[in-house]
Amino acid sequence: MTDFNSSERSLTELQIARAYVSLSSNPEDDLASVLLTTSGSCEIRMFRSPKVHLDGVPLFWLELYDNSTKMSLDGFLCYRIKDAVSVFEDFVSQVS
Hints:
With 96 residues, this protein is α+β, with helices and mostly antiparallel strands. It has two helices and four strands. The protein has helices at 6-24, 81-95, and strands spanning 33-39, 42-48, 60-66, 71-78.
């Protein structure tokens, strides 16, 4: 299991925020997902929420995807960027 210190958590939060800005700044039909990281045959990807963020609507979806089996291993709806950090860390620990 991977343990993240506070500086790693801050870098992860920054990486997630930048990916979210990238998703949000592209036209709806132009960019559906952003790759956050890869480990072996697995990827952690961010997908745009189908609706504009309003109270109670998620910002984005994080997914742990295995390219070798072409299957999603895990996923999570994220309502805040800070919430996504622990999800990202959990996904990383699943493939480490």
